[in-house]
Each structure stands twice: as C-alpha cells, then as structure tokens.
Amino acid sequence: MNYTDQVEQLAELIKKYNNIYALTGAGISTDSGVPDFRSPGTGLWEKVDPIAVSSVDVLYNNPRLFYESGFSRFAKISNAKPNNGHRVLAELEDQGYLKGLITQNIDGLHVKAGSKNVWEVHGHLRTGYCLGCKKKYPFEELVQQVELKRIPPVCYSCHSMLRPDVVLFGDPMPLFFFELQHKIQMECDFMLVVGSSLVVYPVADLPRLVKRMAIINYQPTDYDHKSEIVIRENISKALSDLQQIINGA
C-alpha cells in the first residue's frame, strides 16, 4: 500500500470510530526544533545520559549538576512554537474527531496549539514549584534565577529549592495517569499514535489496552504488528495530508 492509500485509509478509520484518542511522543515536536530521543544521529539520548543529569536523584543530591547540565534543555524546549502537526490534532479535536490527547512531551505545544482535552503525563514547562512549601512559580522564574547563576533556584517564601513541574527519571507518575489507563480501556475504540517509539513505560502500555490503532512514526515500534496502518513519513506532512482528506480538500 502506498503512502496516499495509507492516509486515505486512515482518514476513513477516523471517520468511522467515535471515541478516538491520540497518543503523542517526541517525534511530533521535531519540526518545532525540539530534538527527539532516539533518532539515529540526532536523538538527545545519543548525546547525553538523561539519568546522569536529569533524574530526581541528581536534582536532590547534586542540584548544581542538574541545573548546570540538564536544565538548559528544558529552557530551550519551553521557547518552542507549535507546528502543523500540533495544529492539526487540535483542529481534529475541535471538529469532534478526537476525544482527547495523551502526550509524553513536556513542551506544552499541544496546549499552545489549542488542544483542550490533554493529559500531559510527564508534566509540562509552564510552572515549577517549591520542594518545601509547594508554592507554584512560573517556569520563567526558574530560568531567570539559573541565568543569574542562582543555582539552585530557591523559593522567595521559604528558601527551599525549586524544581520544574515535570516527571523526571525516578519520579512517580501523576495520580491521574491510573485513572487515564482505566478511561482508555473503557472508552477508546481507536488510538492514533503519533511520533512515539512506544518504549517508555508505563505510557507505552496504553496501546495494549485498545483493540484498534494506527501509528505515524519514522522508527519501528513493538506495536507495528498490532496496528491497522503504519505510516513512516514526516509527521507534520502526514497529519496535514490526513486533515485535507478528512475535510474533503
């Protein structure tokens, strides 16, 4: 089946089912200048071991290393802008085709693009919080303190350390994730996986809970055999083409 046939078939499936959820990973944001994790030659995890600089253990035990080596990646990501892929998924939700969107990404680009029913299961870069009194701060406050070499950044109220509102290696998943698992198992009749290699658990377990799915991703996944359609194409292009077919353009 050629690419055009694949996209047309996917459009038909999206029109057919009533409770479609999208699951997105780092691949949807590469066109926004956010590198993914595993692409050969460009993936972030080929260049740095995230557990060595961006884990919760490093944050607590060596905060200077965390904020000097791992934090700059967060600051760059927070400035990214949505691309056509993010915008198409937001519009598909507006049109009633998508019930909601689950993302592994912390870049917040789905929210910026206008998606409303979003579960950011690994957190986001809009805020941080104090480890002492739990006071919330805009993420920009953490960035500004780090730029001024106030490392680690601290709370103005109790002077405890601030941390970003993201799920680091070693952090527990947010409580809502377990409710989300149940929701997907009970409600989702079709899952559209976009830009995820489906290797980071427990999020990668979500497709196991659904009967039907499609994947748009450059790299192979362990779920390709289960997927009704697997599209290996630039994600922004594939989603834009999909939207045109759905809308009859």
Explain what this protein looks like in three dimensions.
- It contains ten helices and nine strands.
- It has helices spanning 3-16, 44-47, 50-53, 56-61, 63-77, 84-94, 109-113, 139-147, 176-187, 235-246, and strands spanning 20-24, 98-103, 118-120, 123-130, 136-138, 162-166, 190-194, 213-216, 229-231.
- It folds into two domains: 1-34 and 82-122 and 172-249, Rossmann fold (3-Layer(aba) Sandwich), CATH 3.40.50; 37-79 and 123-166, 2-Layer Sandwich (SIR2/SIRT2 'Small Domain').
- Strand 4 (123-130) and strand 5 form a beta hairpin.
- The model is unreliable at 39-46 (pLDDT under 50).
- The protein is elongated and about 55 Å long.
- The protein is of the alpha/beta class.
- Strands 3-2-1-7-8-9 form a six-stranded parallel beta sheet, with helices on both faces.
